[in-house]
Specification:
- The protein is α+β, with helices and mostly antiparallel strands.
- The protein has a single domain, classed as Alpha-Beta Plaits, CATH 3.30.70.
- The strands form two sheets. The protein has a two-stranded antiparallel ribbon with strand order 1-4.
- The chain is globular, with a radius of gyration of 13 Å.
- It contains three helices and four strands, in the order αβαββαβ.
């Protein structure tokens, strides 16, 4: 059920992003780096499911708690919309300037 809601939300946000109504620009106008706190991440997969531009990919890395940590491999594609920040239930994602 939660993934169906995320899927609908992703479709809705893609329409909004097409018209640039959700995009949040960074302070200096450049893309920021997405960082994941491995101590907090529980591998829920919401971040790469919700991302409208597919910044995240599943990785083979496991944190100390035994969860697979997502890997932000496409930082250059990030549009700074903040969906990953808002949707992360553990607040493990942050943007680094």
């Amino acid at each position: 059920m939660i993934f169906f809601i995320i899927y609908l939300f992703k479709i809705y946000t893609k329409d909004l992003l097409r018209f640039n109504s959700v995009v949040v620009s960074s302070k200096n106008g450049e893309n920021t780096l997405i960082k994941i706190d491995e101590k907090l991440c529980k591998g829920c997969d919401i971040c790469y499911t919700i991302c409208p531009v597919n910044v995240f990919k599943k990785s083979d890395e496991i944190n100390k708690k035994g969860y697979f940590i997502p890997n932000p491999v496409n930082n250059d594609k990030c549009i700074n919309c903040g969906l990953c920040l808002v949707m992360c239930p553990e607040f493990a994602i942050y943007l680094d300037d």
